[in-house]
Amino acid sequence: MPLEAFTPSQPLTFGVELELQLVSLSDFDLTAASPDLLHLLQRHPFPGNVTPEITESMIEINSSVHTAYGPLLAQLREIRDTLVAASDVLNIGIAGGGTHPFQHWSQQKISSKPRYEYLSQLYGYLAKQFTVFGQHVHIGCANGDDALYLLHALNRYLPHFIALSSSSPFVQGHDSGFDSARLNSVFAFPMSGRAPFILSWQEFTDVYFAKMERTNIIKSMKDFYWDLRPKPEFGTIELRVCDTPLTVERAAAIAAYLQALCHYLLARPEAPPLEDDYLVYHYNRFQACRFGMEGSLTHPKTYDTVPLRDDILATLEKMMPHAEALGSVEALQHLAATARGGSDAAQLRQVFEREGSVESMVHAAIQRFRGDRRMRWQRG
Amino acid sequence: MPDLPPILTSLAWPIAIAIAWLAGEFGQRWTGLPRISFYGLVGFVLAGPQGAVLPLPDSGPVALLADIGFGLILFELGYRINLRWLRTNPWLGAAGLTESLLTFGVVYLIAIAFGSSQLVALMMAALSMGSSPATVVRVINEQRSSGQVTERVLHLTALNCVLAVFAFNVIIGFWIFRTFDAVGEALWQSLVMLAGSALLGALFGVLVPALLRAIRNPRQDATLAYAIAILLLVAICDAGTLSPYIAALAFGLSARHRRVAFSAAQRNFGALGGLLTVLLFVFAASTLDWRQIAAGSALAVAVVLARLATKTLAVTAFAHLSGVSWRKGALTGLGLAPLSVFVILLIEHARHAGVHVVDELRAMAAVTMLLEVFGPVIIQRALIWAHESTTDPEPPHAA
User: Fold this and answer.
1) How confident is the model over A109-121, as pLDDT tens digits?
2) Interface residue of B146, B150, B268 to substitute, partner A, most A CBs within 10 Å
3) Which of A357, A362, A379 to probe the B interface (max B CBs under 10 A)?
4) What number of CA atoms fall less than 13 Å from residue A271's CA on the CB side?
5) What does pTM read for this prediction?
6) CA distance A86 to A80
7) Hey, is the C-beta of A107 within 8 angstroms of any chain B C-beta?
C-alpha cells in the first residue's frame, strides 16, 4: 500500500505525547496496572487522551493540538491532576523518567493488543526491554516538503532535546553512567536512527518508501523508529528522542522550545541542511545521552566543538524573539534554568546519593510528577 | 513415637521437609497447582494421628521456627501495605470491615445452628474473619502477580487479620474468665496486647533501618538484617505475651516507610524464606487430627462456603465505589478465601497461653484442612482470572 498523502496542517501547531510509568506503592517496582487505570478513567471525563502501551506497566497520554504554550501547559496539568487522583484510588504511583531505575525487563507483561503481540514475536526480548518512557512532540507542517526540511534542519539541535529531557540515569538497578540511557534501548531496533536524507515529499513517497515497501520489511511509517519522523496522517513531524521528564511543566517547555526552533527555521535563516551534516550527528547524539549538559557538541558545518550547555543557552537566547511571538518566553526561561541548574537525571542521582536506595528515586519521581496539586477523585 | 530409636525421631522433620518439597515441586509441575497445597497435604499425611512420622506438635523448637517463618511472611506483607491508601480510598477500608464483620456474624449463626456452644461459635466466628497471609503472600509471589486484585487482597488480608487477632483474643480472655462480666477486662487486655505488639514492631521498624543507615549498608541488600531482626522480634514476643504476628506486621509496615531496601529480588526472603515456608505449612497441617476433621466436616463445609460467600459478596458490593470493576471486586473477595495457617498458629498460641481450645474447635480443624489444600488453589485461580499473574502463558501471537 503506497504511503498516504501528507495531510496539510496549520504550521507550528503542536501536541505532546508522554509515556508514563505505573508504579506499585508497595515496592516501588513497575506494576501491570494499565487495565485497571484505564477502566477507572473511563468513568471520568478525561482531558486529552490516554492509551495502553506495549507493556501493561506503561500508559501514554496525549494532549490535544494546540497553537500556544499556555493552553498546552494548562491541559497537561489538568491531565496530570486527573491521573494523580485516579492513581490514588488504585494505590499506584505515576511517574515520569525515561527508565524505571530497577525494574527487570523479564517481569514485564506485553499488552494484549495485536500490534504489540506482533512486535513481541518479531523483536523477542527487545520488546520487553523497550519498557522505557519517552516524550514525543508533534509539530504541524503546511506540506510534506516543509516537514522534510524541518526534519533535517533540526539535526544540529537534536542533542539539546536529549540533554534537556534526560531523566534515565539508572537501568536494572545500577547507574548506567548515561544521563539518557533510554535511547540505548531504542538504538537496538533495526529501524531506529536518522531518516534518509531526502528533502522532497514526492521523492520520499515514490522512491524511498516504495522501495522499502518492496523489501517487505516496512508496511507503514509506524515501522520506523527514527529520532525524527514525518507523520503524514497528522500532517506533522514527530520528535522522539526525549525521555519523559519528571514534570509536565518541563514536558510543555520542551515542546515550546521545539515550536520556537521550527518558527525560526521555517524563515530559512541558516544554510540548508546537507547529507554531510550527519557526519557528526551520531557522535553528538551520543555525547548528549552519555554526559547530558556536560557533553560537547561538534557543529555540523564548522566542526567547532562547544560545550553543549553553552550551545543550549545561546540558542535559547537566540530563540527569545520567536518565543515572544509565540507566547512561550516563560518556557524558554524554564529551560535555561534547567541548563544551568541540572537536568532531571542529575536530580535523580542526587536523590540516590542522599537516600541511598533506588526505591527512593522512584518515590521522588512520583512526588515530582504530582506537583503541589491534589484533587479528590470525583466518582462518575 | 516412643518405639523408634531417637535417631529416627530426630530425622522425622528433615525427612518430612524433604518429602514436602519434592511433593511441591512435582505436584506443581504435574498439576499447575500451588506448591503450598502439597506441603499441607504432606504435613497432614505424615502427622502423628495419620502417618505417625512426625512427633506431636507440642515439641517447642519447630513451633518457634514455624512462627519465625510466619513472621517473615507477615513482615513482607506489612512492607507492602500502604496505610495512606485506606485514607485516600475509604471504600476499601469499608469493604474490609464489612467482609470481616459479615463473616463473623454469619459463621457465628451457622455454628449455633449446628449446635455449637456460644463460646465455640464466637471463637469460630473470630477465626473465620481472617485470611491466611502466608498463603496469600506465598501464592502472589509464586504467580508474580500484580494489579488491583493482588493489591487489594494483600491490604484486606492485613486488615482482617488484625481484626481477627483482636476478636480472638477478646474471646480467649472471655473464655479464661468464663463470665460476661469479664468482657471489659478481656477487651482491654486484647487492646493492650495489640497495641504493645504493634509498638514493639514499629520500634524495630525505626531502629533497624536507622542501624542500617548508620553502618552505611542501605545500598546493599538489607534482607539478612531484616531476617535476623524478625528472629529476635518473634522470640521476644514468644517469651512475653505479645502477638508475634501483629509485631511482625507492624515491623514491615514501619520499615516500608523508611524505604531502606528490602530488595524485590529477595521476595520470600530467598532460600531461607523458602525453607521456613515448607516447614510452616507442614507444621500447620501436622497439628491436625483426622478424627477431629471427620467429626467437624459437615459444619466445616458450611463454614467454608459461607466464608466464601460473605467475603465475595461484601467486597463486590464496594467494588464500584472503590474504583474497580464488579468482576475484579468479586475476584478480590474470592482471593480472601485462604485461612489455614493463620488459624492453626492462633490456636497454637491459645494453647501456649493455657487455653486448650483445639478439641472444642473440631470444625475449625476441618475448615483449616480444607483451606490448607483448596485455599491456595482458589487465590491462584482468582489471580489468573484477573489476568494479574505473570506466569500465565503469553497470549497467542497474531503474526
Assistant:
1) 676 777 777 777 7
2) B146
3) A357
4) 9
5) 0.84
6) 10
7) yes
